[in-house]
Amino acid sequence: VGSSALHRASSEYFPSTGPGISHVHALTLGCRSPVCDAVVFDLDDTLWNTLDTLHAAHEAMVVALGELCPDMQIGSRESFADEMKATMAQHPDRSHDFTFIRLEMLQRLTGSQDVALKAFDAWFARRNAPTLFEGALEALRALREAGLKVGTLTDGSSDPTRMDGLREIVDFAVSSEEAGAAKPDRRMFELCEEKSGCKPAELVMVGDNAKKDVAGAKAAGWRAIWVRPPQNAIVNSSFDLGGGGGGDGGELGADATVDHVAEIQGVLRKWATAPSSVAASMAKH
Predict the structure, then answer these.
(1) CA proximity to 130, closest of 51, 63, 48
(2) Could you tell me which of 35, 159, 174, 192 has the fewest CB atoms within 10 Å of its CB?
(3) Dihedral-angle region of residue 146 (phi above 0 means left; psi in -120 to 50 means alpha; beta otherwise)
(4) Residue 21: what pLDDT?
(5) What pTM does this model have?
(6) How far apart are CA 173 and CA 284, in angstroms?
């Protein structure tokens, strides 16, 4: 196949393929029609285990507080969660912004803005050093190399642009802090559309939360793939400050259900190679 023909074919399958992306990868998906231009991933319990990450971040914060305030009586994880919830109740208009809430909580407990910032920095550094599920990074990289845009959408404080491996793959990232609301609020999804330059029908959401990720995406006019959450997911734990629920039942409203993000490429391939009537039906949802 000549290079010009190869370029035309890859443009037909994945219109967003850019000059820096290998066109051969777009063809390896075996697509006959484009199914999306961008895939947007939730972070917590979709790309990594949230409780493991938060436990490590909490311990880093406790160590920092012990060094900064040796006379401070440091409570349990549950007591810190209660303090976070109390701070959220004091600032209902900022309850979606966990960075603000944690800083306010630390300043209130320590009585020092400087100490609060240093303790938060310790927490934030560890929060942004998660251990990704095996194969997750490779799965996102494969989608990116196939010419698709890769984005992230999270209610948490994690920032993928600070993470080795992810920062090289992610095209855009949206947080509840930036959007001014938490999922499933439409503003979260609108900001993704703005940053990606994609229409709702050109976006696919991948996440573990049936209410926030699946229902939120569907209400915004996106398609949604539900990733079954891990056994020790954050939902209903002491760290579940958002109270979003939705840990089960995602398959009821999702366009597809998987156990791991490594299966996403196969789902997109299946959609793209479906009979034209089925593909047309999918495009309407």
Answers:
(1) 48
(2) 159
(3) alpha
(4) 35
(5) 0.82
(6) 26
